Amino acid sequence: MKAALVSTKLHHLYRNLIWRSFSTKFAMANSKFEYVRNFETDDRCLPNTWIVVRVDGRGFHKFSEKHEFAKPNDKRSLDLMGKAAGRVMTEFKEICLAYGQSDEFSFVFKRDMDLHKRRASKLMTSVASIFTSAFVFHWPQFFDIPLKYPPSFDGRVVLYPSTQNLRDYLSWRQADCHINNLYNTAFWTLVLKGNLTNAEVISLKVL
Ligand code: GTP
Ligand code: MG
User: Taking the chain (207 residues) in consecutive chunks of 10 residues, what is each chunk's mean pLDDT?
Assistant: First the structure.
């Protein structure tokens, strides 16, 4: 009994000695390698500017074909995009406005916010990641066919120093939406209802 107790104590002693020796070595190695942290660049967004994060579906031309999206606009897709954007806004209270069209969504962060120290990569990747996972998560609520492969969205950060610049940015995306819709509606009406081929429509000079 006594011998067993001594053996257990010795076991603990050895274990502690071995662990201390290892942890000292690891701590030394850690400080030796730690300099690599200095390679990380500081990507904090300029203070007092409007931060816009825009996500865009990657390869959605193919994705929309594979998942038989209606032409020119698929309501299920647009509603799902809106749902995913809502999820991003629930997650980030610092977003004051969002605007979406086609396979893209822009998120405007409040000018004075300091979330994640305004680090561009942290904000952009978080928004793109939450948006993508919400898009996949809510897919079955909007589509009755399963996903054929995982969709993804890229992201970018753009800074606008004045409110006028921000207004112009949103007007630009809105004009883009109208131009594309006008073109796509005319194009697909001529193909689907006018029985013209895609090439014939493209060759029409009025478009
Ligand atoms: P990258 O963004 O560069 O990866 O290319 P992309 O293929 O996603 O093209 P882009 O973002 O420029 O344009 C989005 C594309 O998605 C459109 O050109 C359409 O082909 C498709 N798309 C988006 N919304 C709809 C929709 O409601 N219906 C249909 N049929 N297609 C859509
Ligand atoms: Mg795209």
Answer: 63 71 73 91 96 98 97 95 98 98 98 97 98 98 98 98 98 96 90 91 74
DSSP annotation of 144 reads S
SS3 106: strand
The position carrying tokens 């010795």 is 10
Q: Residues 68, 145: contact at Cβ < 8 Å?
A: yes
Distances (CA, A) of 206 to 90, 183, 186, 200, 203: 44, 11, 10, 12, 9
Q: Given the structure tokens 């610049």, which residue do they identify?
A: 165
Contacts for 48 with CB less than 8 Å, ≥ 6 apart: 111, 112
Measured CA to CA in angstroms, residue 101 lies from 18, 31, 55, 90, 172 at distances of: 61, 49, 11, 20, 12
Residue 153, ligand 1, Cβ within 6 A = no
Cα distance between residue 94 and residue 88, in whole Å: 10
Residue 184 CA, ligand 1 centroid: distance in Å: 11
Tell me which residue has its CA closest to atom 21 in ligand 1.
61
* Residue 194 assigned as binding residue: no
- Annotated ligand binding at 155? The verdict is no
Residue 61 Cβ inside 6 Å of ligand 1? The answer reads yes
Report whether 56 belongs to an annotated binding site: yes
